[in-house]
Amino acid sequence: MADTLRMIIAVMGNVASVSLYAAPTVTFKRVIRKKSTEEFSCIPYIIALLNCLLFTWYGLPVISYNWENFPLVTVNGVGIAFELSYVLIYFWFSSPKGKVKVAMIGVPVLMVFFVIAIASAFAFPDHNHRKLLVGSIGLAISVAMYASPLVAMKQVIKTKSVEFMPLPLSLCSLLTCILWLTYGILIRDIFVAGPSVVGTPLSILQLVLHCKYWKRKVMEEPNKVEFQKENVEKMDLEIGNMEKNVTLSSNYNS
């Protein structure tokens, strides 16, 4: 019964996590359409990529006992594909300065992962020490990943708009945290449950900001339309006056 429950939670956690990884596709469709990264930050996606790499490695038999953490391998393997795609798209459409920023953050991150992977595979003789090393670093990176939306939340508070913090991402984040927290408790693995202890309240905070600022964009749109309408009316009036003056001038000359 306990094994069945763990499996159900693991499957649900996988589905929720894949949804979380897929949520930014809305953002990157906009980036591709506008050919600009606008005010979006690359940091959350690079941190998420490192997190996926570490927990995929953590779940493999090199670190864990056999395939005891197989659900981590499947979901984080999918996450690697998503996050790497986001980073590459961001790099392609960012400004020259933005490209330098991505490279300066992304290359050291990949180097850190390779150093950890090599050290854990060859420097430690048993699984316990390997899990402790990779799990501890993965836990710290996961906390950073769940804390990275603080950048977006700061932008939301500054602009009073949730435009750059998509709601699907916040909802998926909360659901994923709850499921993996439950799964980590069931298998008694602090390295699996730990990140969600931080991620859950941060995800709730994102939803609070959505509730507070979601009307802002809706309220601004009518004002924008009204402003454009006034400009059009002014232009029409000015054109009408110009045509009237030209006509009067023509009559006077004739």
Considering the chains and any ligands shown, give keywords for the structure.
mainly alpha; disordered C terminus
Notes on the protein architecture:
This is Bidirectional sugar transporter SWEET. InterPro entries: SWEET (IPR047664), SWEET_rpt (IPR004316). Helix content is 85%, strand content 0%. It is mainly α and 254 residues long. It has one domain. Helix 1 (2-22) runs parallel beside helix 4, helix 5 (96-122) runs antiparallel to helix 6 and helix 7 (149-159) packs parallel to helix 9. It starts with a helix and ends with a helix.
Query: Residue ranges: pLDDT <50 for 5 or more in a row?
Result: 218-239, 241-254
State the helical fraction: over 70%
Structural class: mainly alpha
Outline type: globular
Number of helices: 9
Overall pLDDT: 81
Strand % is under 5%
Distance between the termini: 101 Å
Oligomer: single chain
Number of domains: 1
- Computed Rg: 26 Å
Give the number of DSSP strands.
0
- The helix/strand order is HHHHHHHHH
Largest sheet: none
Transmembrane segments: 6-28, 40-60, 72-93, 105-125, 131-152, 164-184, 190-209
Membrane topology: Multi-pass membrane protein
Organism: Clitoria ternatea
Subcellular location: Cell membrane; Endomembrane system
